[in-house]
Write a structure and sequence with these properties.
By secondary structure, the protein is of the alpha/beta class. Helices cover about 45% and strands about 15% of the residues. Helix 8 runs parallel beside helix 9 (about 235-245) and helix 8 crosses helix 14 (about 325-340).
């Protein structure tokens, strides 16, 4: 398609629909005057693409996981970026960085790198020294050569900057809620009116995220239901646990849905959870977007003691913490909160905090970086 506008090619390894950080990035690039093409992959269970105001391309790959998947994805991405016109490359996470870096050098166009996490510290790489070594070698070769780098919070930005001696800008994954959003009622969502709603949401409900212990805790929680919305590598295990433990009447699993659908459930929750374990540096320094989703929906938080999350909760007084991941102790804290007047205070503070914790303010840092790349 012919266009006189500059073109930004944004790449990410997932199937696009549920990655809200990437979607917000594309919208900011549009706001900055770019035509945007978003490149990802297609999976058998991929949701239909929404009617976004930018183009999206999902690549079908023969391999769905493992080393061959990463090899062929990076090769396809390299060829796609090489032969498509673009004026700016935007790489999301380490698993798209190599082809973006090579094409940026070959075509002499600027590259922005957005690291959503401490990629080399994820649990999936901790048990494979070879895989971790490969990704670390790619990171340590390329990142020191980059000029424009982004990550999700101050802690991770500091770690990367100290390690690679290049500046990283912290742009938090704050929710972008439309001012005119009206949530569906519990009746419309077929949710009970006489019970409190506990919510755990996230695209990465994986090992050590606390979901298994949360299900175990529901045995000791009455007058409430638990809703888990998302996907991840423990999803099938969660389904099995619910059946085996006869907890189907207390727990509702909803496989990943677009953000527009998720928001309705978030706004109807009484308590939002973010209970990752401190088993690796990536989880320890995480600041999940669900934290901001809960706050913007006026939903108090219950979280584990992780520094970036703890900083937000304590600064704005919007929730409380679990002491450990023992199911009985999780249940005791949830029961305490659901019957406490503190919940009303936390909810009121969430509604105050959203005036500061909003994407309109946070995206100004991204706009500044994009303008620098285009100058």
């Amino acid at each position: 398609m012919f266009t006189t506008k500059k073109i930004a090619a944004v790449s990410v390894i997932n199937d696009l629909v549920t990655d809200n950080r990437v979607n917000k990035t594309c919208l900011v690039l549009k706001e900055c005057g770019y035509d945007v093409v978003l490149i990802g992959r297609k999976l058998p269970a991929s949701l239909d693409l929404p009617a976004w105001p930018y183009r999206a391309v999902r690549m079908n790959l023969l391999f769905k996981s493992g080393p061959l998947f990463y090899l062929f994805f990076n090769l396809r991405l390299f060829l796609s970026l090489l032969f498509k016109k673009s004026d700016l490359l935007y790489s999301n996470d380490l698993d798209t960085l190599l082809p973006n870096f090579l094409v940026s050098r070959l075509k002499r166009i600027p590259l922005i790198y957005d690291s959503h996490e401490l990629f080399c510290e994820v649990p999936e790489l901790q048990n494979s020294k070879l895989k971790r070594k490969i990704w670390l070698s790619i990171e340590s070769w390329i990142v020191p050569k980059l000029k424009m780098c982004i990550t999700v919070n101050d802690s991770i930005a500091r770690i990367f900057s100290e390690k690679y001696k290049v500046p990283f800008t912290a742009i938090r994954n704050i929710s972008d809620y439309p001012n005119d959003f009206v949530a569906k009622s519990r009746e419309e969502l077929k949710l009970p009116l006489d019970k409190k709603i506990i919510l755990l949401q996230g695209a990465g409900i994986n090992v050590d995220r606390g979901a298994e212990e949360l299900i175990d805790a529901m045995e000791y929680i009455d007058q409430a239901i638990l809703i888990i919305i998302g996907s991840g590598d423990v999803w099938e295990n969660l389904k099995e646990k619910i059946v085996v433990q006869n907890l189907s009447h207390k727990i509702k699993l909803i496989y990943k849905i677009p953000k527009t659908g998720l928001m309705h459930y978030t706004h109807n929750a009484d308590l939002g959870l973010s209970i990752d374990k401190n088993t690796n540096l990536n989880y320890y320094y995480s600041l999940p977007n669900k934290v901001f989703d809960y706050i913007n929906a006026g939903v108090p938080l219950l979280a584990s003691h992780l520094p970036e999350i703890e900083k937000i909760i304590k600064e704005y007084n919007v929730g409380d913490f679990i002491t450990d991941h023992l199911p009985l102790n999780i249940a005791a804290k949830i029961n305490e909160l659901l019957s406490s007047h503190k919940l009303i205070t936390y909810k009121e503070n969430c509604l105050k905090a959203k005036s500061e914790l909003n994407w309109t303010s946070e995206k100004l840092k991204l706009i500044k970086l994009i303008e620098k790349a285009g100058s």
